[in-house]
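Take one record.
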Amino acid sequence: MNEYEKQKHLRIKKILTIVGAFLLALGLVLDVVFFVDFAGSMGVMSFGQPEFFWLSFISFPMTAIGGALLLIAKRGAITAYVMRENAPIVNEYSERIRPAVKNFTSAAAEGISESGGAVVCAQCGEVCSGGARFCTVCGAELFKICGNCGEKNAAKDKFCRACGEKLGN
């Protein structure tokens, strides 16, 4: 985000904050007026209907819209707060599962070394022995040998990963 976009973003956040706070405050004041009027009309000695019932049709949506605008404007601050609160928990649990992750990765590494460096064919998915240059099922090339340095490269590579030489087709 360049400087102009940052300034524009900050202006929009400020406008959303001001408008949201205004709508929320005004909506809450109108909510109170409505509830006081409504509760007063329900009193023991009162037989009249509430005069300001219509305010509920304005105040409730206004309160909701104001709250939503404030949430949108303060989303970054809320997210930063939640991240700071959750980071210690994540760190604690990562320490607890570290031994299990080490066991899992060690087992995976052992499986790979026991398989003799097996290669999966990119074309058909067949697992071929590490010494095979072509797939035993579909005949696709499993890797390319660089003519310049002898490096083994993936079959899809166009250039050698060791020396940068263009690989033959």
Notes: The CA atoms of residues 149 and 163 lie 7 Å apart. Helices lie at 3-41, 55-73, 75-114. The beta strands are 119-120, 127-128, 143-145, 152-154.
